[in-house]
Write a structure and sequence with these properties.
The chain is of the alpha+beta class. The protein is built from nine helices and 25 strands.
Amino acid sequence: MSIRGVQIICCLIIFLIPCPLQASGSNELDRVLDLVVNEVLAFLNGRNDAKILVDEVPAPRVGTGRVVTMKLRDRLRNRELLTNDWEDATYSLRGNMSFSNHREAPFVRLDFSLHNPNTGAELKSFRMRFWEATQVMWLDQKSQLEFALKNASDPELQRIKEAIEDVGQMEGAIILHPSEVAFLSGCTVDYQSPLEKALNRDFLGDSAKPATISIEDIKKAKRLVTTTLGEALGKPTYTAWPQANLSASEVSPFRIQIEVADSDFPSKFRPAPMKGIRGMALLELNPNAVYRVRIMNLSNSDVGAELRIDGINSLVFCTSDSVSRLGKYLVRKESQGLISGWQTDLERTEPFRVTSIPAPAISEIGSAPRMGTISVGIFPRESEHDSSAFVDLLDGRTKCPKNRGQAAILSEQELALTKEEVSFGRTPLAVMTVRFVYPDDF
């Protein structure tokens, strides 16, 4: 048995700030986790016999700690540092997730610590190392934030600046994007409708004509996205429709429905009834039940749909690199379709099942948390010639290879791919989330 080690304490703060850095959003969780692993490697200082056990990362009222656990394990596995056996562990890497509904700067907070598996003692030297690394990251981001907020006279913008300063006093790294904050917190939020009302313009369909966008429009849009998310976190709400349909608001043109079948009758699907608890939608699903997700686009524009189960993208296991990299389905205007499971290749899916033990094909996701989370984000589609005003306001005209690829066309038939590569904005038009309880069968 190896000599057992120590505990790493890191504090990651994932929060939304209205600034140009939002355009770098979708990859920032990966960047933060890379920082964690890199500091672990630096701490080990070339020690090849070390083995690290990554505990499940819990999160309040959501299952999205699962994606953090999976990504950390994957990174350590690639470096041959991971063990799943407590007896072999040199170090135990533990973490937990919490959320803030600060109206001016909502954020997700992740704490990690590296422990001695025998004594539970924390290695404080690692805490200092990690804190220094995250301070370097923060100073770089802070300089860009201060440039974006320079000469701010608007009282609301000043309050945001003060909120940023308050958060900057904490230890940790930050992620600056409303997509990740909404997905990780299990939030249901409509960004599109409040922006259309405030700016008096349509973002989708024939009426969404190209228009001049001013700096003031961009500032106003980013501030409104911030406060909309903060309010959605502080006072959760959703809109229920007949047939157990759910939308982010009464006027949002996007809906989802969870269809469920008992394990004894896997082909007989029916809408899963949901009930509201403290403004959040909760499904009551039986152990081993199979479920699928229906996504409805009632708008007159094509959009992208990203499905995450416990924070994990449903296309992450697809053998098509382009499809898994893009991670979104194309939903044609005024259409709907079904996602029946984890897409392992272009012909096969591993059904979504209410069980704590994953199937072998998706064993990387690890054991399930107590609270399951199903989230769907809807993203505006970009064309080669123009992008929607929504994308221009919140994301800019950034071109990122990871945000471009072939998309699976959502339908009720066999999976088909777009003939050409497509791209989508990085800030969602809406995010819709439902929760359910996993059975205690492990």
